[in-house]
Amino acid sequence: MCGIIARIGDGDAITKLVTGLQNLEYRGYDSAGVAIQNGAGISVYKQSGQISELKDTIVGNVPKGNVGIGHTRWSTHGPPTDENAHPHTSETDKVAVVHNGIIENYAELKTWLKEQGHEFTSDTDTEVIPHLFEQYLESAPSIEEAFRMTIRDLKGSYAVAALVDGDHAIYAARQGSPLILGLDNDEYYLASDVPAFLDHTDKVVYFEDGDIAVLEPNGVTMTNLDGDRVTRDVEQIDWNPEDAGKGGYDHYMLKEIHEQPNALANTIEGRVKDGEVKLEDFPKGTFSGIDDVHLVACGTSYHAALYGRHLLNEAGIRAQAFRASEYVGSIPGPVTKNTLVIAVTQSGETADTLGALRQAQEQGARAITVTNVMGSTAARRADDALFIRAGPEIGVAATKTFSSQAVTLSLLAIRLAEDIETAKPPEDKTSLLQSLDRLPDNVEQVLASTDANRIASQYSGSQSFFFIGRGLNNAVAKEGALKFKEITYEHAEGFASGELKHGPLALVTPETPVFALFNGNNDEKTLKNAEEAQARGAPIVAIANENHAAMNVADSFLTIPETHPVWSGLLANVQVQLVSYYAAYDLGRPIDKPRNLAKSVTVE
Ligand code: AGP
C-alpha cells in the first residue's frame, strides 16, 4: 500500500511532488510527507492526516530544491502518527527514504542496527532502510554501492526512493511493489502509479523486480542487484491528464460512474467483428485443451469473477471463482497445464491476487490476467494479459472497472467456449453481441434518467440495506452491498435471492430496505423472495425494466432499459452505484477516500 513519488530536474520540486502525491492519495491517506535536497541538508516535512494538511503546513515555509521524494501512507506497521509518516531518515539525517511495501525481515535488521548504535524513532518497518543505507555509506566504495548493499539485505516487497545529503541524485529500487519512471525533457520522475506525473509526461519505463536506478539531472542509470546494466523499454501511456482529474464532478467516484459509457465502448472496441468475438492475443484455438478454469480475485474484482464464472458454467465449462486470499493453500484438486487461472484485478497489484497467481503458476497452470493497468505486476507475471481498457480509476470504490471487467470476462467466456470441445457458445450469440453494442448507450440512458438520489434520501436512516439477485444478478447484488457499505459505512449485505429465506430473513424489518434486482432470468422466483421480505415489513426497491411485474409489487423503483439478460445486471449496477454514492453524499462521507481503505492493497 502507500504511494511514493520522486522528482529531479530544473526548478523547484516541491509543487510537483505535492501535486503528484495528491494524484496518488487514493493509495493511502493516513499521513503524508516530502523531503527536499537543497544544498543545506535535507528538509523533511511530514505529518499524520491528508495531503491537504501537509500542504497547509508547507505554505508558510516552502522548501527550495530541485530534487525530492514524497509519500502518502496507508498504515501497516504502526499507527498513523507524525513519527510513523514517511520520509524516514537515518541517525544523522544524512539519508531520507520513502517506501511502499513490507520489509519482512525488519525486526532482525533493526536488532542488528541497534547493536551498531542506531536509534529508531518510529514503529515502521521502513525505518531500517535509511539506517542501513547510512551504515553502508561508511564502508562502501560509492553511494550507489551502499544503496545496492542496503537493498540486497531487504526481504519482502518494496518500491524505494532515497536521497543522500549533498548528493544530487535519487536512488530507487523495486521488488514486488510498483515503481514507474517518468521521462520528461528536462526532468525525471518516479512514482507508484502514472497519474502522479501524467501532467508532465506520458513516457514511462516500468521497473522490473530487482532493478536499481540512479536518477541524476543528466540521465538515469538502471542496473540489477549485481551492478550489471539493464535496459528497459520506454513505453507511451495512452491516458491523458484529464482522465486522471475530477473533470468538474464533486468526486472521482461520480465522474467514474459517468465515464462508464465511454469505458465500455473502449472495452468493446475492436473485440466484436462480423458477429464474432476477437480478442487481440487470443486467436481461435488459444484455449483448446483447457478443461478447468479458476478465477481468482478480491473485492469488486471477485464479484466480476463471479459474473464470469456464471457465464463459463452456462457454456458448459468447469469454472470456479475464488477469493484470492483463500485460494493459496486450498486449491481444489490438481492444477495442470490444462487449468486456466484467470487473475482478475483492476490494479494488477493486489498482493492476495498476485499470491494466488504465483501459486497456480508454480503448480503448472496456464495463467492470464484481466486487468486495467498496463505494466502492472499481474500483467507482467501472467502468461498473457487481457486489458479491460476502462482508463484510470482513482476513487477507492471501483465502479467503471467492474462493468468493464464483467464485459471483458463475458467476451472471454465466449472465446473459451469456442475453443473448448465440450463447451457450447451461447445459442443467442448474435443478439447477445448486438445488445452489447448498445450497452454504452443503455448506461447513458440510466445516467440521464436515474432517480437514485431520491431513493437514497427516502431510505436514509435505515438500519441495514439488503441487495438480492439471482444468477448473474447475485454477483451484482454482492457488488452493490460492497459499494454501499464501503462508502456509506452503513451495514449492507448482498444475497442470492433464494437464500434470504434460509436465515437472513430473520434480520428483515421495516428498517431494512431490500433492493431486488431483476434481469429476466427466473424473475418470478426473485419476485416471490422479495414479497417474502415485504410480508415481514421490509420496503422493496425493484430495479427492473419499466413494465416489469415487480413494479406492481415494489414500494419504490429504479428503472433500467430493456437489454439482453447478460447485460441487464450491469445497468442495475449503475443504479446501485448511484444510490450508494448519494447515500454517502447525504451522510457527508469522504466518498473517494473511505476510512481505513486504499485503492490498491499490496499486503496479504
Ligand atoms: C472495491 O470498491 C474495492 N475498493 C476493493 O474491493 C477492490 O476491488 C479490491 O481491493 C481488489 O482490487 P484490484 O481489482 O485492484 O485487485
Structural class: alpha/beta
Largest sheet: 8 strands, antiparallel
Number of strands: 26
> Which percent range fits the helix content?
25-40%
Question: How would you explain this protein's 3D organization?
Answer:
It contains 17 helices and 26 strands. It is α/β, with parallel strands linked by helices and 604 residues long. The protein has an eight-stranded antiparallel sheet with strand order 3-2-4-1-10-9-11-14, with helices on one face. A six-stranded antiparallel sheet has the order 5-6-7-8-12-13. The longest helix has 22 residues, at 565-586. It is globular, with a radius of gyration of 25 Å. The mean pLDDT is 94. It binds 2-deoxy-2-amino glucitol-6-phosphate. 2-deoxy-2-amino glucitol-6-phosphate binds next to helix 8.
Task: Please render the helix and strand layout as text.
Blueprint: E1 3-9, H1 14-24, E2 31-37, E3 42-48, H2 51-59, E4 67-73, E5 88-89, E6 95-103, H3 106-115, H4 128-137, H5 143-153, E7 156-164, E8 170-175, E9 180-183, E10 187-191, E11 203-206, E12 212-216, E13 219-223, E14 235-236, H6 252-258, H7 260-268, E15 272-273, E16 276-277, E17 292-297, H8 299-314, E18 319-323, H9 324-327, E19 339-345, H10 351-362, E20 366-371, H11 377-381, E21 384-387, H12 400-419, H13 429-449, H14 452-458, E22 465-469, H15 472-488, E23 492-496, E24 514-517, H16 523-535, E25 540-544, E26 556-559, H17 565-586
Parallel strand pairs: 17-18, 17-19, 19-20, 20-21, 22-23, 22-24, 24-25, 25-26
Antiparallel strand pairs: 1-4, 1-10, 2-3, 2-4, 5-6, 6-7, 7-8, 8-12, 9-10, 9-11, 11-14, 12-13, 15-16
This protein binds 2-deoxy-2-amino glucitol-6-phosphate.
